[in-house]
Amino acid sequence: MADLKPGGRLPLLFFGMLSLLGGVMAGLARLGWDVPGPAMQAAGVHGPLMIAAFFGTVISLERAVAAGRNWAYLAPLAAGASGIALLTGAPLLLGQTLGSLGALGLIAASAVALRRQVAVFTIILTLAAGCWLVGNLLWLATGNVSTAVAWWLLFLVLTIAGERLELTRFLPTPPLAPKLFLTIVGALMLGASAGLDRIFAGGLIALALWLLRYDIARRNIATEGLTRFIAACLLSGYAWLAAAGLLGLAGAFAPGHEWRDAALHAIGLGFVFSMVFGHAPIIFPAVTRIRIPYHPTLYLPLALLHLTLALRVFGGLNNNFDLRHTAALFNGLVLLVFIATLVTLVGSNAKRGAR
CA 30, 101, 52 angle in degrees (round to 5)? Predict the structure, then answer.
């Protein structure tokens, strides 16, 4: 079957970006910021917009490109449409159903890679897609977003870990390393399925340590250019993952805990968006065929991400709402700075090519 042309992928990416924008503003609405009406009404679905709609769209779009099958693009289409439904005030059931269909599509696209190559990393990537579906179904069945959070986090964490695991094939790792990895994944799955928050938190710490020890980023940080930038993003993200796990050991993953915001955003912003910043110059061109040249200015949004998130976490740990309130706004602005940096780099590269 033929693959969708790059021009046809851009609208799907645009839908995902709308979910990102809406999700960020919905999050600000939860902290009392004045935002446009649709985002204010979507304050209760901040998590689904960011994880299920935005990341569901971009991850399934990337997987569809890898699968090279037209039908695989139905997954990002459904995920993107779920975000639009949540933002426009459509019946909640519609957004939940579309998100679940997107997850099913991602599982199917992941199965294509699994059939091509049965390996630990392809199994983990398929398992991660399944976690997205489990989270969606729990939300659909209970109407309570909190029941889905651990599974949605696993969707993101295992997707990233699976992709990093693939690259360890090029390193001389001891036979114990993959066994440890699978043990850690088992602990995370147990923690999520049994509601054992501290086991889940311990699994996050163990995974962060595993990645810090075995990921190729340890070697690449000594290189130059884009490779070094990616390594800096990865290593700093692993530090945030460990920090989230430490907060989780203190009970921060429990609904209503005063440190819950700090723990969840240490994963969602510190870990996940560090990965986004690092991989965007590679994944975006692969999906759109639009090249993003490397420039040292990419370090600016990365540094701002960590600084503003540190302020938010500090405010959460010290029960300083004003600091957390202000830092959350800066978190959103950092994402805009990153997008603007990418657009500027693409534009400058296009101008040089036109000369």
Answer: 25
DSSP 131-146: HHHHHHHHHHHH--TH
Could you state, in order of their start, the residue ranges of all structural domains in the chain? 226-355
Contact 309, 331 (CB under 8 A): yes
- Give the tens place of pLDDT for each residue, 83-141: 999 999 999 999 999 999 999 999 999 999 999 999 999 999 999 999 999 999 999 99
The Cα 165–Cα 129 span in angstroms is 16
The token pair that represents 133 in the structure block: 């579906």
Single-letter amino acid, residue 233:
C
Where do the H-state alpha helices sit in 195-273? 197-214, 217-220, 225-249, 260-265
Provide the sign of the torsion angle of the four alpha carbons 136, 140, 141, 145, taken in this order. Answer: positive
**Whether 331 contacts 308, CB under 8 Å:** yes
Instruction: Return left, alpha or beta for 251; rule: phi > 0 is left, psi -120 to 50 is alpha, else beta.
Output: left
Gap between the Cα atoms of 101 and 222, Å rounded: 43
Q: What is the pTM of this model?
A: 0.94
349: buried, middle or exposed (CB in 10 Å: 19+, 13-18, 0-12)? middle
CA distance 234 to 217: 7
Closest CA to 211 of 167, 153, 151: 167
Report the alpha-carbon distance of residue 260 to residue 88 in Å, rounded.
Answer: 28
